Amino acid sequence: MLFRTRFFALSLLLLAPSCLLRSNTVTDRFVGEFKCSRDRVTVERPDKNRPDFYRATGCNRRASYQCSGDYGEFCERIGQPETINPEGGALPAIPTPDSSSSGPSTPPQPPKDGPVAGPAAP
Prior knowledge:
Layout: H1 2-34, E1 42-44, E2 53-58, E3 61-68, E4 74-83
């Protein structure tokens, strides 16, 4: 019985570093790819049936990674990263001088009475 307990404790000690190393590797990759500080990055394992699949979130971005290697030292991003919430919402439309009227824009028309004389020159 003592042998089984020690074997179990030893196996836990050997498995724990790989989980920690994979999490650190994912964090390092995310920091390098998105220029986000380490303290703003969180790493999770969303699918417990896939121990090599990780999701990192930080600085308004989210990306998925798959790790391989004995200790999870090789991690690569899967798919395209996501923007979680655009900061400040959608970009506001920039008004143009012609957009003040609700109808279609038309070029300015000269007055029907004839050209308007400019101010007299001094």
